[in-house]
Amino acid sequence: MSQITKLREVLNKAGDGSYKLSVNDFIIKASALSLKQVPEVNAAWQGDIIRQYNNADISIAVATPTGSLTPIVTGVEGRGLSDISNTVKDMAARARNGKLAPHEYQGGSFSISNLGMYGVKHFTAIINPPMACNLAIGATTQKVVPDATKEKGLAVRNVMEVSLSSDHRVVDGAVAATWLKAFKGFMENPLKMLL
């Protein structure tokens, strides 16, 4: 998470107030790019068949006064971070005010539930049918980790725990693990998201 924190700070300074990137924006983008690398995860169970999607249309859980809604950011794989950020902020505000049209929260190909802002370190998200997966995001915390470059062989790093719930009719454990590896790669080297 240290690399994302640094890149986020640099990009926000360069934005001159036209956007303010959050960690969640990087999570959304990394998820979409991982869906392109592992397209089997960008799918849904529909009756007797598996439907695979071309676009990464990502549902983001938003708490509202009447319960949780999941606005959909469409075509995330082709959007820049500032566009994702501004879209998410707009949709979240409209969701809280009851101003979303049904097509803006029905559908989607992949869900993200982030409870990190509440201090929750780890949880398992419930899948939103017919989607096959829901990514649960926990809070960023500091942990001591092995580091051969340090004198004592240890370093303190900011880490974030995630879990991927998947419908095993569509995404089995090996495919889910492959997707998580791709996601981890983008999160640990966020410059790859800008290419």
UniProtKB/TrEMBL annotation:
GO BP term, pick one: pyruvate decarboxylation to acetyl-CoA
Listed Pfam families: 2-oxoacid_dh
Natural source organism: Lichtheimia ornata
One cellular component term from this protein's GO annotations in UniProt: pyruvate dehydrogenase complex
Name of the protein: Pyruvate dehydrogenase complex dihydrolipoamide acetyltransferase
Plastid found in the keyword field: no
Keywords attached to this entry: Pyruvate
Single GO MF annotation: dihydrolipoyllysine-residue acetyltransferase activity
InterPro entries according to UniProt: 2-oxoacid_DH_actylTfrase, CAT-like_dom_sf, E2/Pdx1
Listed SUPFAM superfamilies: CoA-dependent acyltransferases
Domain of life (superkingdom): Eukaryota
Residue intervals of the 2-oxoacid dehydrogenase acyltransferase catalytic domain: 1-195
